[in-house]
Amino acid sequence: MAADATEADTLGENMANLEATLGSARQETERLSFLLQFMDNSHGDQLEGVDTLIGEAGDCRDALM
Predict the structure, then answer these.
(1) pLDDT of residue 2
(2) Is pTM, for the whole model, over 0.70?
(3) To 5 degrees, how large is the angle CA 44–CA 50–CA 54?
């Protein structure tokens, strides 16, 4: 009986540790998702800036011709 109680306590502690680990993993996943979204938005802004510069360069070329 004592062995069963000890095993139950150990299993309870292990479950609590797993829940804490899962909580940390969820928080890290949320941070990474935010970072990836930020990077994606920044990349999109950079591409728009490059497209604008290319358009302006084409306009200048056309004006010079």
Answers:
(1) 79
(2) no
(3) 145
Report CA-CA distances (Å) from 20 to 3, 16, 17, 23, 45: 26, 6, 5, 5, 38
CA distance 31 to 18: 20
Looking at the chain, the number of H-run helices and the number of E-run strands are 1, 0
Burial of 35 (0-12, 13-18, 19+ CB in 10 A): exposed
Place of tokens 């950079």: 46
